[in-house]
UniProtKB/TrEMBL annotation:
It comes from Streptomyces lonarensis. This is Lipoprotein. Residues 43-59 have a biased composition (Acidic residues). Residues 23-75 are annotated as: Disordered.
Length: 224
């Protein structure tokens, strides 16, 4: 059975530091981070199932925030994502979560397209975060694998730090996802292990929350 490749620790910020800074799930400061309006992340009314996002050729069509154009993201139809809602109505926290979702889609676009040159990945990640992401994607390409199926993102949290800085974490459940051998098309189901991801994001002058560092570890008690 093939297992999902995970982000290399060598180029990621240590999990302990990020997870400590991500705990709490809310803003540490009453100061709002100024910025542009963002599309809200996936949300559902309390008590209802999160909406399933299915891959298609228009996950994030080129869109404008003021004078800024965000790159479109194209993924296969057999990719599905479920983003559980976060209990916040803070516009800055929602902006962080929305751009984090787009980063996740951008990584999957790079994996499934077979190209690390897709514009969205470098749009939503920079610095060590981009290096780690490119290395992660390249390992799929080098080993001849892509991905398909459904992934659930849950136990999500976001914390606003100093102005223009945030930390965020989530658990990922890949039990309904598959590694796909590109040459043969054979699909290999993931195992039951779930992972805990943590990241630091910084807001650009244009208002985009970019991943600047990230880490992943086995979910353990955090992801039960």
């Amino acid at each position: 059975m093939k297992h999902r490749l995970v982000l290399p620790v060598a180029v990621a910020t240590t999990a302990g530091l990020l997870l400590t800074s991500c705990s709490g799930g809310g803003s540490e400061s009453d100061d709002n981070i100024s910025g542009l309006q963002y599309p809200a992340p996936s949300e559902e009314p309390e008590g209802e199932e999160p909406e399933v996002s299915e891959g298609d050729t228009d996950v994030a069509a080129d869109a404008r925030d003021g004078d800024m154009v965000r790159p479109g993201i194209d993924v296969p139809d057999d990719l599905e994502k479920v983003f559980e809602p976060v209990d916040t109505d803070d516009p800055d926290e929602l902006a962080v979560l929305a751009d984090q979702e787009q980063y996740i889609w951008a990584v999957d676009e790079a994996i499934t397209s077979g190209s690390v040159d897709r514009p969205a990945l470098g749009f939503y990640a920079t610095g060590e975060g981009l290096i780690a992401s490119l290395d992660f994607v390249s390992r799929f390409h080098d080993e001849g694998y892509s991905i398909s199926g459904r992934t659930k993102y849950y136990n999500r949290s976001v914390t606003l730090r100093e102005e223009g800085v945030a930390t965020a974490a989530y658990c990922a459940d890949f039990r309904d996802a598959f590694m796909v051998e590109v040459e043969s098309g054979d699909r290999f189901p993931e195992d039951d292990e779930q992972f805990l991801y943590a990241s630091r994001l910084e807001r650009t002058e244009g208002g985009v929350w970019q991943i600047v560092s990230l880490s992943v570890e086995s979910g353990g008690s955090e992801c039960r």
